[in-house]
Design brief:
Radius of gyration: 13 Å
CATH topology: Leucine Aminopeptidase, subunit E, domain 1
Order of helices and strands: EEHEEHEHEH
Shape: globular
Number of domains: 1
Structural class: alpha/beta
CATH class: Alpha Beta
Helix content: 25-40%
Distance between the termini: 7 Å
Number of strands: 6
Length: 134
């Protein structure tokens, strides 16, 4: 694969969701959704105090634990969940690349297994990193 699969780029400015779309955002384990995409997620059902998993039309992936390695199990669980729920379309935001302080080069490789999942959309900068690695 040397190009981004058609229709698989997450819009960098999501203002509405279709009924089957899920907004995937970076959170903290405590579920304090006060800033960035986490704050935006509250409009679609993100629950204060819940830092992991499905919440309304959102899915939280903790990114504020201090290291990329600590994010891996949460991304792996998300990908398993998304693959098991192929009737939903998951719009992954640039998790970890805002308040958490990581870069797309740090986080994108965690989504390598998402490339084969047609119902997972990734940010363009994640795709750019992933395509360079193939």
């Amino acid at each position: 694969m040397n190009q981004i699969p058609r229709g698989r780029i997450t819009n960098p400015c999501i203002t509405q969701l279709m009924e089957d779309e899920i907004f995937v955002f970076g959170s903290n384990l405590e579920g304090m959704h006060y800033g960035g995409a986490a704050r935006t997620a509250c409009r679609w059902g993100a629950i204060m105090g819940q830092g992991v998993g499905m919440q309304g039309q959102t899915y939280a992936i903790p990114t504020m634990s201090g290291s990329v390695a600590s994010i891996v199990p949460f991304v792996d669980e998300f990908i398993r969940f998304a693959k098991a729920n192929s009737d939903m379309r998951f719009l992954v935001t640039e998790i970890g690349c805002g308040i958490a302080g990581f870069t797309p080069a740090d986080i994108a490789p965690l989504f390598r297994d998402a490339v084969s999942a047609e119902n997972i959309c990734l940010p363009e900068r994640f795709w750019e990193v992933l395509l360079k690695q193939t």
